[in-house]
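Reviewer 2 asked us to include a model.

Predict the structure of this chain.
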Amino acid sequence: ILIVGEIRNPTEYLVELAETKEFKENTIDTAWLDKLIAEKAVNVKFNINDMVFYGACLKSFLHMKAAKDEIVDGIKRGHLPLETTLSSMQAFQVEIAY
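Predicted model (structure tokens):
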């Protein structure tokens, strides 16, 4: 999983934008938003541990889904699941870089 970009959580980001003086006075335009992004004036706080946890959960889910799809495909063709596929569902490592 690669997390890239200025906006980490759109809802929190929009709340921060809505709380600016310019937004409240309705004196905004695209140049205003470009300036805020360039200056990184709107800071959205996030917990790195939560992000790592959610990333690991997503990677785990995708791994299990792929293994399940492989098993179901084999069963449809009349094959029993391979022991290696079943074993890979019991324990596996998830690597997350942040």
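The chain has a mean pLDDT of 82. The first helix runs from residue 10 to 18. We have added this to the supplementary material.
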